[in-house]
Structure formats: structure tokens, C-alpha cells
Design brief:
Blueprint (H helix, E strand, L loop, with lengths): L1 H4 L1 H10 L6 E5 L8 E6 L5 E6 L5 E5 L13 E3 L2 E3 L6 E3 L4 E3 L18 E2 L1 E4 L2 E4 L7 H5 L3 H5 L7 E2 L3 E5 L3 H7 L6 H4 L4 H5 L6 E5 L2 E7 L17 E7 L3 E6 L2 E9 L6 E9 L8 H32 L12 H14 L1
Organism: Frankia umida
GO molecular function, one term: dioxygenase activity
Cofactor: Fe cation
């Protein structure tokens, strides 16, 4: 249980797992147009701004005024300037210093040296990624997983506002909950997830550190042996190492990100729904209905189950958590993290 409870393990994960690999920070679709931005908290606690500049380039900027360190942005939206409420310094959408009240008091410092600090990033495969110094680029990080990820063309989807839920559980507990279907009959028996899927049976494929699960839909029950490909109804789940699950369905995809929240027993689940921009397939009201329904499942069904698991792990007298052969996705996640820590 130490890998769930030990503060030293969490610090090692922050350095060698979450801090050493490219991380998805935002879907490209959430940064539609010049000046679009959103704020994010990194696993290590730092606040950043993901901003699309007037030049069309997406950047990851540290959300810290270069004067006295106050935040310059909150939430998300579209803005030509990020302005510090403390002393009024402002920055443009690329992070350059654009306004400096009381400039004569700082005339011995070049304004060009006072822009928001920028972190290495890359926009590819429909996402903006943080790329820590020394880590491989995104394509190298994905390896053979790049091809299936690219096939979805996520940049063409429509982004909906994100939801964050803080939970009393280790961040890996969140990943486990969304990369197996063993729990569906017990946690989701009355909701759309449980009713729409055949539980506790999945296909499993590994792509280096990443993995894919195929989850059959109830429409596949009783199919004849000679059923056509059109009769196969499956949801496809991707694990993008180290902390992202992508659930692909006919309506679009869900991004489920797990990150620590300051201690081994606290974490944040961030959920973003990307809907397909296809009016013949999905009506606007269906998007909203689906979004609210799936978030109720995550908040009111998965959330309590994950919290219960987290609390039990904190109290447990035994030294290990048990993963069955019917949970290959969870086993894969732990193997990759252990390998990085080794």
C-alpha cells in the first residue's frame, strides 16, 4: 500500500513520472481563436495559463506576475491582456509585458525581460502538451500509439467547459476507476454507463507505456457468429501515460485527468467532454443532456466509490492492493509507473 500512502513515493512520482513525461494540459478545441486561454494547475501545484497568442501559437505561461508574484489570470475565456490586480502590470496573449504603471520606478530593468515565464510545450494530436525539459517530444513519447491517437482528429471536436472534483484518494485510484469495467454492475447499475455496456469483459492492447481497452455495448449481446462490423458497438478507452484516460464513444470523447493535490491521499479529477461537430449525428441538446448525465455518473457514482477506496487504503492493515486478471488496464498503469520509479 506504500505506493498509495507514502509521501516519499508521491514525491518520486512528481519528479520521475508526472514531471518527466509530456502531459496533456488542454484540448486544442478549447483554445479556439486568438486570445483564447484557460488556467490549469500542474501536478506539482504550479498555476499556468494555456494561451493562444495573436500569432496563433499555443503557449504554456506561468501564472505569476513578474513584479511580486500575484496571479494574472483565473478561469478561462478570451482576452487580449492578462492584468495583475495587485499593481496593474499587464501581459499580452503571448506573455510579453504590455503595461507597467509606474514605469519610471523600474527604468533600470528591460521590459523585454519581464514577460511571463514560458514552459516548454507542444501542440499536436489535438492537444496542447507540457513537455518537461529532458523529456522526449510528444511523438517519441507516444511511439506506436501516435497512429491510433491521430486517427480521431480530436482538434476537429467541440470542447465543453471542464469539471474538476477533488477526492480523498490517491491519484492512481482515479486512473484505476476509469480503466476497468469490473465495477460497472455495482457502481453504475442504474445509470447510462452500466445499462449501456457489457461489464467485466474488455479487449486489451498495450502500446509501450500506453494502452487501449475495448468495451462492448449491450447492442452486441446475442450477435450471430457472422455479424458484420457494422453490428459491433464498442467504446474505446485510451490510457495516455502517465495520467490521462480518453473515453471514445459515438458522441465524442471524455478526457479524464488525474493529478495529486498536495498529499498521497488527495487528488483532483478533471473531466472534459469533446463532442463531435456533426449536426446530423448529434444535436446540441443531446450534447448537453449527455454532458450532464455523464458528469452526474462521475460525481455521484464514481466519486463516492473512489473516496471509499481511498479511505480504506489509508486505514488498511494489509500491505497490498489486489488486481485481478480481469483488470489488465489497471495492471498496465501500475507496471508503467513502477518501471519509471525503478
Amino acid at each position: 500500500m506504500g505506493n498509495y500512502r507514502d509521501p516519499e513515493v508521491l514525491q518520486a512520482e512528481l519528479k520521475h513520472v508526472l514531471g518527466a513525461s509530456p502531459l496533456v494540459l488542454a484540448p486544442s478545441a478549447a483554445l479556439h481563436g486568438e486570445g483564447a486561454y484557460l488556467t490549469r494547475q500542474l501536478p506539482d501545484g504550479r498555476s499556468v495559463i494555456v494561451s493562444r497568442g495573436e500569432d496563433g501559437v499555443a503557449r504554456v505561461l506561468v501564472n505569476t506576475c513578474r513584479h511580486r508574484g500575484a496571479r494574472v489570470a483565473e478561469g478561462s475565456g478570451c482576452a487580449r491582456r492578462f492584468t495583475c490586480a495587485y499593481h496593474g502590470w499587464s501581459y499580452d496573449s503571448t506573455g510579453a509585458l504590455a503595461g507597467q504603471p509606474g514605469r519610471p520606478g523600474f527604468d533600470d530593468v528591460q521590459a523585454s525581460d519581464l514577460g511571463l515565464a514560458e514552459l516548454p510545450s507542444e501542440e499536436s494530436f489535438g492537444f496542447v502538451w507540457l513537455v518537461p525539459a529532458g523529456s522526449p517530444g510528444v511523438t517519441a513519447h507516444l511511439g506506436s500509439f501516435a497512429e491510433p491517437l491521430a486517427s480521431y482528429d480530436y482538434a476537429s471536436f467541440q470542447a465543453n467547459p471542464a469539471m474538476e472534483v477533488e477526492l480523498s484518494a490517491n491519484w492512481k485510484c482515479l486512473l484505476e476507476a476509469f480503466f476497468e469495467t469490473y465495477h460497472f454492475p455495482f457502481v453504475h447499475s442504474t445509470s447510462m454507463v452500466g445499462k449501456g455496456s457489457i461489464a467485466n469483459i474488455v479487449s486489451y492492447d498495450a502500446f509501450g507505456a500506453h494502452a487501449r481497452l475495448g468495451v462492448p455495448g449491450v447492442q452486441m449481446q446475442g450477435l450471430p457468429d457472422d455479424a458484420s462490423p457494422a453490428d459491433i458497438h464498442m467504446s474505446v478507452l485510451y490510457y495516455v501515460y502517465p495520467n490521462l484516460i480518453i473515453a471514445n464513444t459515438v458522441l465524442g470523447c471524455e478526457l479524464i485527468e488525474a493529478r495529486p493535490a498536495g498529499s498521497p491521499g488527495r487528488s483532483v479529477l478533471r473531466h472534459t467532454f469533446l463532442s463531435k461537430v456533426d449536426p446530423e449525428l448529434v444535436a446540441a441538446h443531446t450534447n448537453e443532456e449527455y454532458l450532464q448525465a455523464i458528469r452526474a455518473v462521475i460525481r455521484d457514482e464514481d466519486g463516492p466509490a473512489i473516496t471509499s477506496s481511498g479511505g480504506g487504503i489509508s486505514d488498511a492493515a494489509h500491505d497490498f492492493a489486489l488486481l485481478g486478471r480481469n483488470e489488465p488496464g489497471c495492471q498496465h498503469i501500475h507496471r508503467q509507473i513502477r518501471s519509471a520509479l525503478a
